[in-house]
Specification:
The complex is a heterodimer. Chain A is mainly beta. Chain A contains no helices and eleven strands. Chain B is mainly beta. Chain B is built from no helices and eleven strands. Chain B is globular and about 40 Å long. The termini of chain B are far apart. The chains are: A mainly beta, B mainly beta.
């Protein structure tokens, strides 16, 4: 089934450890995004990439880094995890960025708990 | 600042009609989206409005009034599977999506 694959599904991490959340899409979408979802808040954009080789900062980028070496993969790295990074992380993609009915396709999410 | 407001929770009866409202204050407007998210799952796209008026898609319709900064999602002939959260998102002048916190819809038999 075409779509977005995220891994791991769930992870418990000790504070101060590093962690990479993986995201792979097979739809040849140009744009990819990382969001975090916390109870009572809307989805918040962490980082995005409009096309392979480029990345940009979203609303809450501190403590996170991304890379976009090719079209399909967009990993999110936490260099030194803190408890406030406990959240559900969603990777998403869209055919392109910008105007129009630019629909996002989301992965199933990665639930991260930092203790 | 930018703000999207939706009711936190609504309850409706199977077979009935429910309207979920969304008001927004954003720096510019380049479209409004509704997504559905079942508990523990990913959001999925429902509708897109960029011009004023009603967009109908089966049992779901979405309305937009840009002058009022207002949208609603109308769900007809409610089914138990419609129990989910409904997320409103507005694309601002920088083409960034601003998301509401979502409305949890509970359907009772």
């Amino acid at each position: 089934t075409a779509g977005i694959t995220q891994a791991p599904t769930s992870q418990i991490l000790a504070a101060g450890r590093s962690m990479t959340l993986r995201c792979t899409q097979d739809m040849r979408h140009n744009a990819m995004y990382w969001y975090r979802q916390d109870l009572g808040l809307g989805l918040r954009l962490i980082h995005y990439s409009n096309t392979a080789g480029t990345t940009g900062k979203g609303e809450v980028p501190d403590g996170y880094s991304v890379s976009r070496a090719n079209t399909d993969d967009f990993p999110l790295t936490l260099a030194s995890a803190v408890p406030s990074q406990t959240s559900v992380y969603f990777c998403a993609s869209s055919e392109r960025s910008g105007s129009g009915a630019n629909v996002l396709t989301f992965g199933a999410g990665s639930r991260l708990t930092v203790l | 600042g930018q703000n999207i407001d939706q009711p936190t929770e609504m309850t409706a009866t199977e077979g009935a009609i429910v309207q979920i409202n969304c008001t927004y204050q954003t720096s510019g407007f380049n479209g409004l989206f509704w997504y559905q998210q079942h508990a523990g799952e990913a959001p999925t796209f429902l509708s897109y409005n960029v011009l004023d008026g009603l967009e109908e898609k089966g049992r779901f319709s979405s309305f937009l009034s840009r002058s009022k900064g207002y949208s609603y999602l109308l769900l007809k002939e409610l089914q138990m599977k419609d129990s989910a959260s409904y997320l409103c998102a507005v694309r601002d002048s920088n083409y960034q999506l601003i998301w509401g916190a979502g409305t949890k819809l509970i359907i009772k038999p």
